Every structure is written in C-alpha cells, then in structure tokens.
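Quick question: what would this complex look like in 3D?
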Amino acid sequence: MNTPIMLLKVRHAGSVGVIVISGEVTAAAERELMEAFAQACEGPSVHILLNFEKLHFINSSGIGLLVTLLIRARRQQVRLMACGLSQHYRQIFELTRLNEAIAVFNTEMDALAALHLSAA
Amino acid sequence: MPWQRFIYRRHNSMADPQLHHAESGWAAPVERLQVDWVPAGAVILNVDGRALTGPLRGFGQLWRKTYRVYTGEFEPREVMRAWRENFEAFWPRGNRFYAPVEGISPGSVAVLNLGQARQGLPLISTGVFVIYADDESFTFITPQGHMFAGMITFSAFVENEVSVAQVQAFLRASDPIYELGLRLRVGHIAEDRFWHTMLRNLASHFHQHWPVEQRVVCLDPSVQWREARNVWLNAAIRTALYSAAAPARWAARRLR
C-alpha cells in the first residue's frame, strides 16, 4: 500500500518563501523537497522558512536532505530558517550542527517578526 | 496566495509507518564523547573528550558519496541485522571497529583503529558516534580529529523489487592536511575502496556477487578557512606521535 507520508505546502510572505512540512522527512522525500524549495525561491524570496510544526518524524537521511538543501540555499544566496521544531528535534539540530547554519525560531510569527526587525 | 502542494508516497516494502514513531532512533545530545569501556587490543586515541563535528563543520569541500550493492531478495531488515551484527567483519582487512557490548545503537561510541598491521599500532586511531539507528538504517557522525567531518548512513531498502544495501556519506575533509589528501585523489581512492570492499563483503554474506555502484556529488566546492585550525586535533598526526613515543613509554615502564 502506498501511504502518503509527507505533505509540503509552499507559500510566500513578502520576501520569505514558507515551506510547511507535514509528516515524515526521509530519503524518499528528496525530489519533492527540492521542488518545493525551487518553488519557494521563485519571486523575491531571499529567505526560506521551513515550518516544522506538523512534522511527525525525521530520520538521519532526512537530516542529510536538509544539509543538501542548506548548501543549495547558500549557493543561491538564500538564507534558510526553521520554526516549529519540537524540543526533541531542536536537540537533533544541535547534535548535527544544523542549528549553527539554520536560524531556529519557535513559531512562524517569531521568524517573520525577527526578519522585519532586522530589515527595519 | 494559493498553496502549492507536493505529496509523495512510499513505493517500497521498507515502508512501515508503525515503526516510524516520533522521536525514535535518535541518540541523546552529547557535548563530548566518552569511551567508558576498554576494548581489548584497541588503541583509544582521539575519541575521549572530542566534540562531534558533522558535514557543516570541517575544512574541505563537501561531498555526498553514495555506494550501493544489490543484496538479492533478502528483506532489508534481514540485511541490516546482518550488517549491524557483523559490521567489523565486513570491514577491509587491517582496520578494526570496536563497538561497545550493546552494539551499534543510538548514543554508542565506537573506536576505530585504521591501517593496523598485525600486532602493530594503527596509522589512525579515532572513533564515531551513533546518532541514529532503527531497523532500516544506522548513522555515524564523526568527532574532531577524524579524517572527515561528516555523517555516514548505512541503510537497506527495496528498489525495483530487489533489496539494496547503501552507504551514503556527507563529508568534508576535517582539516587542510586531509583535504590535500583528497585533492591528490589518494583520500578519495582509499575511501571508495574501503566502502566498495565493505559492500562486497556484505553482499557475499548473502551469496550475492554484484558490482558496487557509486555516485559522487560535490555539494559545496568551497573550503571553510575558519576550520583550518582543526589540524591541531588531526587524529593521524596524533596517532603517529603516539606511535613514535612507543619506545619511550616502554623504557619508562621498565624503569618504574
């Protein structure tokens, strides 16, 4: 049986492309995640916010995908941010050092507010 | 603004949502590694007290290296069980992997003695930390001083109705010396040969004799100069110094 395990939604909020990630992030999600990233980078986006509020699970291959995404973002001079991570996955970000390269916020509003403050 | 939706579905038998419950499989965070067990015969250097690195740290270019081999019609979980239980036996000769009693499990620290002649000291003593393990995969992350700052995932899955075992590494050379080795191709050749041998040994365990496929992508061609100081913790240099001081240690023991 083919079970849907991840749903990605992309929208734009000013200069921020928001990717809302629901379900599970594993190696099988690579193509869809990269397509969503490309979609989020369209238009004036110079920041991409990964919203993990509806995340169910990331395995280590999923972390590898985020590393790939991060490098791609850097090459396009796009800043990657994250929000909505549970305490557990914040620790995983720390363990894998992703938190040193991806700014982590509690909520989407916090992330957008921080961007507006830095732009002001 | 309308939402753009991307949905993907699982297409292989490795999918079992029941096993993928949140927060499973990951190691608890650690500040620094600690080897609280003493494997017989191991030279334990460059592990205790070392912080973890990962592919975002390290000096050199960032590579994604994927090696895979067909393992016939065996269930991925069966392949992973055998891989985990015989991990060291599948390694190329002359290299030792000392895992703790609990084996390859989240949070465990393994000691590596690489390039070790019989009864001799290793060329490199370092370690790895198991950050993730489940029935379908396990992942190591390297500590400071290791040749690579990176993450290596070992997994098995079904593709086109055939079981595949895969090693996927995200890695950078830890410091300029290791990077030089990679730029001269020596490091890449050694690395590729290592994983080819391991996957061939794994496949042979299942009486399969397929060639190992390899895909290498340079994700980031730039170097991170701020990490050049990692050379201070270079495990190869420190192991060489330890080996060079062996006669002095022997003499000191005799005089005691």
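Answer marked as accepted. Chain A has a mean pLDDT of 91.
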